[in-house]
């Protein structure tokens, strides 16, 4: 998978490395901005109330 | 034939390793997000809420959409319960036991997105300083760990709140009490099992128990000990 991506990036090694870095940062950004905020409430740390009404709403 | 078989094996092994490495990296990133990044975001959100409140309180007269009752008497029975604006901060809480610089905003409501920005006031419970039970929930872990030191609360500890006009000093009455998640009696106007046996001006704090779990809740009760106008300066519980 990673080898395939590397072979399909344009340019010489330095350009490929730069594009790879940008790709990695983009993936991390999407994870922190969208994926993890969605996944985090599924973990138990959010349940701090005694009325489960709010938990049922969300 | 032999060569092709080895190539296939190599491809399978390489793909499996890549999946494992990717999964591992995902887990590490997620742990960083939960333990570190939610705290960074929550701290800045809470500082923002406190700054907003202080700015609001320092500029102009307090916008009083709901006039405060004269101190000392309870709300008139006929008056409908006055609500805070949902999702907005309306008070700042100080608990010296958690550190001299521990100050968190209190927001209306206990929805997930509200608790990311501060402590949440159960919207069905009494208003700050009113007759009844002013109940507040907060994260114990993640999102800035506001109630991390909850188990260290002891009877007599001060919980000080201000709404911009008045300082309210509550005193804790029990060591943290462990209960089940559905036990809504703990935020009743006269909380069950709290030892309070008549109407009064109470405060309840709730958070999760165990620290990283959600099987139980940790509860602390307090009663209103004293109030003083903001003009008289910070209460002795904070300065002493």
H/E element sequence of chain A: HHH
**CATH top level assignment of chain B:** Mainly Beta
Q: The biggest beta sheet of chain A, please?
A: none
**CATH-derived architecture of chain B:** Beta Barrel
**What do the pLDDT scores of chain A average to?**
83
Average pLDDT of chain B, to the nearest integer? Answer: 88
What does this structure look like?
By secondary structure, chain A is mainly α. Chain A has a domain at about 20-60. Chain A is about 65% helix and about 0% strand. Chain A contains three helices and no strands. Chain A is rod-shaped and about 60 Å long. Chain B is of the alpha+beta class and about 240 residues long. Chain B has a single domain (about 10-60, about 85-240), classed as Sortase (Sortase, Chain: A, Beta Barrel). Chain B has an eight-stranded mixed beta barrel. In chain B, a hairpin with a 6-residue loop joins strand 8 and strand 9 (about 215-230). Chain B is elongated and about 85 Å long. Classes of the chains: A mainly alpha (about 60), B alpha+beta (about 240). Chain B: One of its GO terms (molecular function) is hydrolase activity. Chain B: InterPro entries: Sortase, Sortase_Class_E, Sortase_dom-sf, Sortase_E. Chain B: This is Class E sortase. Chain B: Keywords: Hydrolase, Membrane, Transmembrane, Transmembrane helix.
